[in-house]
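Supplementary Note 3. Input sequence used for the single-chain structure prediction.
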Amino acid sequence: MAITVTKAEWDALLQEEYVHEGIVSAVNKATPFKSKLRRKSMTSGRRRIYPVQVGMSQGNGARGENESMPEYGAEEFVDAIVEAKYNYGTFKVTGPSMEFSTRHAWVEFGDRQLKGTKEGLTQDVGRQCWSDGSGKLALVNDAAAALGDTTVTVDSAFGVSWGSLSTKTTILLRKNMVIQFGASEDNSGAGYKITSLTTTTITFTPGLAAAVADDTAIYKLKTKDKEIEGFLKFVGTATFMTSVMGLSSAIYHGIDRTAYDSWEGNVVNAASAALTLALIRSLRDAVFERAEDEESNLCIVSPQMAAKYEALLNPGVRFVPQTLKGGVSILEHDGLKITKDSKCPKLSWQIMNTQYIAWAQTRDPHWDDDGSGPLHRVQGQDAREALLKWYANLDVDEPRRMGILYAIAA
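The predicted structure, written as discrete structure tokens, is reproduced below.
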């Protein structure tokens, strides 16, 4: 006997504890840092504000007998201001899809729909965790992207040449993704929908409303400079942020790294040299000199970099007796475990201390509910839609413990 599922029943399904826990778990798995990060509450609305020590006390020094004591030299503090970034996911059911042959069929359909919402959020958050907050997915690599064109060649995932292999540059782009070119070429706000991809080109609809210059950044529609400030931002120095990533300023969480180098991360430019153990050591030493300890607890690299590292090692020491969940073997460098992430920049080497990385958020991901339940009628359609929202940003309170070796030879 056919059944019609009511709005109240759909609302109840979305609000089930296992559904909420599944969404939070999906976000935890989306982070490339291989662990459940600490969560910090915002301290002022959608902001988290805390003092950062940027200068040590200089009220000290040696003296001779009966000489005056050192003058007071106060520590210097400035406020870090973590701004929430607003991420959303949609869940939609049409009128016909609210009618099922059995209740079991409805539950299966609901689970499939929720899986799609969770997986979409997981993929996008995972990518943003690596990004610099600008939202750059790639750059146009086509000097003749003219009015009306529907196919464009791209390069430089994350907006940098070492973000992707030259033979596979569309790694952050997806079919059905709606994009814009640069700050303003967005088809009058409607964007361009990707219909197909190759490893180096995207095809979209409609055709370009205006010519697009070479090296123009490609973004998801309306996301420019609105995304989570991920690894490529919190690891940076002032020069790295402006000259390498092409950001408009060297400000991280409200503090200008040009003025306060103690708020910088650590970067080493491989300058297109092949990966060597000496280069890896130079990065680890750079972090050690700033942090004064060997507390880095994770190194994350692309599969390509992991393979290059493995090739550097003697056969007898390539694999160490460590496993991740599921029994996956991992490599290490001088006690620092090395894991792989498919979404990270392809030609770089990242080390970090996850104890100093946290989510600053207003609350866990949740459904928008105006008191009548999560599902709302879509105006002009026989459909209802729920909005999943999460106001959060990554917060690193000691960037000096993070490091990147970038521009390694392919």
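The helical segments are 7-14, 17-30, 103-130, 231-234, 238-244, 277-291, 303-312. Residues 138-220 form one domain.
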